[in-house]
Design goal:
Distance between the termini: 42 Å
Number of helices: 23
Strand order of the largest sheet: 1-2-3
Order of helices and strands: HHHHHEHEHHHHHHHHHHHHHHHHEH
Largest sheet: 3 strands, antiparallel
Radius of gyration: 27 Å
Strand content: under 5%
Structural class: mainly alpha
Helix content: 55-70%
Number of strands: 3
Shape: elongated
């Protein structure tokens, strides 16, 4: 049974209880759809060949789809109805933008804050990183987060993308009369704004792709991989083997061969150690996991802790095989693995797993490309370990069709990840398209019943459904209490605001031009621009203390008061 819709003509037939039920139902569906889109995009970040495109285009674009759909449907229907319900879309735009730049940023500062050192900078090297202070003043002024250049740059881009607002708002100051007259006067300004929005939108995506290719979004990719691994979405090899292969292939390209014409020669000493770029990547991804399994906190893992690690990361390996691997990399024989030894062990485990999977693929004829993989020489000690760890006798235990792709081979996991990601993206987008229109009608009906402008209703309620995933993600990343994860959280929120200023605003510009609607939202526009300027100023420093976080949080309710004040003095 589908959800019933509400029309203006039959609003009396639905009581407040039914209206509340509709809001909660549609809101939950849109929240669920936003999570599907977010999680599907995150899964695609595990595909090395697609990570740049996903980070640069897919994540920003699909993240704006829920808000964009509400805004689009607010301007559909008869012209008279669209002119009224357009306030719902404007409220969603203002509420989404302002809430993204206030509540999640406060939560990021609250969750990611650490103690300041004597020079007044966040001390990320201390342990524990946050301790209770003796007074409220110390809590507010002596704890906070670092604001990196990447965050500074994101704030500047966000402010730059507000230019299209001025294109439509400046003429709106001087146009008076009925809606049709105002719409006629704004028409060509709306077209100009629409074109500029599209140009800014395309330029922003191009910049994101360019930065992704340059590795600027590396921290975001690493954070996503760490989250999916720790959540048990993928196995160790499934998440990392493709990236390790890609890094090594890149290092073996002619452009990376030394000036004397020779690539680096593998020796007995270094053949079981990852190249430096691979080592650096594995350290970033696995450092948190290493600390989590280091139960006694001595900076090492014993045999029991290593066994738990491989089991929890969905690797099918017996106790004897773990012991063999452990002994191989316990080079000093102290019955523990240091972090460096642990990284070496994980690297070779991933490489040997790949070799065994390639060998199985050749024998079964399922992967022609895998037949080019190097076969390990007979009699080699390393080959004996490979055969023991991934023998047919052992792998027969998992030949049945797995319930989840954590039990698949790395290559099969990559294919399964693509399928699942695209299914999640498709159904998430479909749900948004189907349920945005009835949600707009619900907002309109609530406003009618309360005697308020639909702007205020959608300003407060729309972000609850559309921005919930961003709030959860910012809290997750901030909780890691590192400079990098705080940067990931803050830049993602800035990027979402930039998408609202370009992609979502272009929808309004298009509605005004193509449908002949009037832009009569002076106070709302001034509020959005003022808030973005204030947040820009907050994010131009090098640090932000906890008190600054409360200042940002206060901007959200104050912006509503600001809109009401502007309307009171006549700026409607």
């Amino acid at each position: 049974m589908g959800f019933p819709s509400i029309n203006v003509a039959d609003q009396e037939e639905v009581g407040w209880t039914g209206l509340l039920w509709l809001f909660l139902s549609y809101g939950y569906v849109l929240y669920y759809a936003s999570n599907l889109i977010s999680e599907g995009s995150d899964l695609l970040m595990l595909i090395p060949s697609m990570a740049g495109l996903v980070g640069g285009v897919v994540l920003p674009l699909l993240g704006a789809v829920p808000d964009g759909a509400i805004m689009l449907f607010s301007g559909l229907g008869s012209r008279a109805k669209a002119q009224r319900t357009l306030s719902v879309g404007v409220g969603a735009l203002a509420g989404s933008t302002i809430s993204l730049l206030t509540v999640p940023i406060f939560l990021t500062i609250w969750g990611g804050r650490v103690n300041y050192d004597e020079s007044g900078n966040p001390n990320y090297k201390a342990f524990p990183r946050l301790t209770k202070k003796g007074s409220l003043r110390a809590e507010l002024l002596r704890t906070g987060v670092a604001i990196t250049e990447q965050v500074n740059s994101g704030a500047r881009i966000m402010l730059l993308t507000t230019i299209p607002y001025f294109i439509i708002q400046v003429p709106a100051f001087f146009l008076k009369g009925r809606d049709r007259s105002i719409a006629h006067g704004e028409k060509w300004f709306a077209l100009a704004g629409f074109v500029v929005c599209i140009l800014f939108f395309a330029s922003y995506l191009y910049l994101q792709v360019l930065q992704s290719k340059q590795g600027v979004d590396k921290d975001k990719r690493v954070a996503v991989v760490k989250k999916l691994l720790l959540d048990g979405e993928v196995s160790l090899c499934g998440a990392l083997s493709a990236t390790v292969r890609g890094q090594e292939e890149l290092l073996n390209q002619p452009s990376n061969i030394s000036e004397d014409g020779y690539a680096s020669i593998e020796t007995e000493e270094n053949k079981n150690q990852p190249p430096e770029p691979v080592r650096s990547y594995l350290k970033e991804v696995l450092r948190e996991a290493f600390s989590r399994y280091d139960v006694n906190g001595n900076g090492t893992l014993d045999l029991k802790e290593v066994k738990t690690f491989f089991r929890d990361f969905h690797e099918d390996i017996s106790d004897d095989e773990v012991a063999t691997l452990f002994a191989r990399y316990d080079t000093d024989g102290d019955q523990i693995l240091s972090f460096e030894e642990f990284i070496n062990a994980c690297y070779v485990f991933i490489k040997e797993h790949d070799k065994q999977e390639a060998s199985k693929a050749r024998r079964s004829g399922r992967a022609m490309a895998a037949s080019k993989a190097d076969s390990p020489p007979e009699g080699d000690a390393e080959n004996e370990l490979v055969d023991n760890m991934f023998s047919e006798e052992h792998t027969e235990e998992v030949e049945e069709v797995p319930e989840d792709f954590t039990e698949l081979s790395p290559d099969e996991q990559q294919a399964a990840i693509k399928r699942r990601a695209f299914v999640m993206l498709f159904f998430g987008t479909l749900l948004v398209v189907v349920f945005s229109d009835p949600m707009v009608q619900v907002f309109d009906q609530i406003a009618v019943r309360l005697g308020l402008s639909p702007f205020y209703v959608s300003f407060v309620l729309a972000p609850i459904a559309s921005n919930a995933s961003e709030v959860i993600a910012s809290m997750y990343y901030a909780a890691k209490k590192t400079r990098k994860t705080v940067t990931v959280a803050l830049t993602a929120l800035e990027g979402a605001a930039s998408m609202n200023n370009t992609f979502c605003l272009s929808i309004f510009m298009g509605l005004i031009f193509f449908r002949g609607l009037a832009w009569t939202y002076t106070s709302e526009t001034i509020s959005i621009l003022t808030v973005e300027l204030v947040i820009f100023l907050f994010l131009q420093g090098k640090t932000m203390n906890f008190l600054g976080g409360f200042g940002i949080l206060a901007v959200f309710p104050l912006s509503l008061v600001y809109v009401a004040f502007l309307e009171w003095i006549g700026l409607k």
